[in-house]
């Protein structure tokens, strides 16, 4: 089921988040996530002028029937490397099946960021088996989306696992 949800997120972002202007991209991303949550009948919470951030996260999906977080998304950091890293570092501490990070950057900066995400996850000691990290990166120069994924293979510190995001 998580594979299907991740694929819907990837397809939704590719098809529906395409504006060159940052505020419009943010709205498009929120619209894509809201539609997917509505289709799955999940509760949702998004950062907006009326809501603000909840637990420092921009967007959540929640299944009321089993009190389970399906998605924690940290995004809309269309700014600089330090801000993107700061937002990514929130995700491992939150419990949800899918942890989505969305950002834009030039290719070399994005590759550097992904290596830093891997290093951070390697050092983190409280993983839950089955959690899925999905990184959606918009090439600031070329305008194309790229997606990277890492599945947590075991709970706790990843001592025998090399953390490496795989391109989708």
Tell me what the structure shows.
This protein has 4 helices and 7 strands, in the order ααβββαβαβββ. It is an alpha/beta fold and 168 residues long. The protein has one domain. Strands 1-2-3-4-5-6-7 form a 7-stranded mixed sheet, sandwiched between helices. α4 (107-123) links the parallel β4 and β5 (132-139). α1 (2-16) packs antiparallel against α2 and α3 runs parallel beside α4.
Topology:
Layout lengths: L1 H15 L5 H18 L3 E4 L12 E5 L4 E7 L6 H8 L9 E8 L1 H17 L8 E8 L5 E7 L14 E2 L1
Name the descriptors.
168 residues, alpha/beta, 7-stranded mixed sheet, 35% helix, 24% strand, globular
Low-confidence stretches: none
Mean pLDDT: 86
- Content-based structural category: alpha/beta
Strand residue content: 15-25%
Rg, rounded, reads 15 Å
Summarize the structure in short.
The chain contains four helices and seven strands; from the N terminus they run H-H-E-E-E-H-E-H-E-E-E. It is α/β, with parallel strands linked by helices and 168 residues long. Helix 1 runs antiparallel to helix 2 and helix 3 runs parallel beside helix 4.
């Amino acid at each position: 089921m998580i594979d299907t949800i991740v694929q819907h997120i990837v397809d939704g972002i590719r098809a529906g988040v395409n504006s060159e202007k940052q505020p419009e991209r943010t709205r498009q991303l929120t619209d894509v996530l809201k539609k997917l949550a509505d289709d799955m009948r999940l509760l949702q919470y998004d950062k907006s002028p009326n809501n603000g951030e909840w637990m420092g996260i921009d967007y959540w999906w929640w299944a009321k029937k089993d009190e389970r977080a399906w998605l924690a998304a940290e995004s809309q950091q269309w700014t600089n490397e330090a801000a993107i890293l700061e937002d990514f570092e929130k995700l491992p501490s939150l419990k949800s099946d899918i942890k989505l990070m969305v950002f834009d950057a030039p290719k070399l900066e994005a590759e550097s960021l992904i290596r830093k995400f891997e290093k951070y996850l390697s050092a983190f000691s409280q993983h839950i088996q089955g959690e899925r990290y999905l990184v959606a990166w918009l090439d600031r120069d070329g305008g194309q989306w790229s997606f990277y994924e890492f599945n947590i293979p075991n709970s706790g510190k990843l001592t025998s696992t090399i953390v490496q995001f795989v391109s989708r």
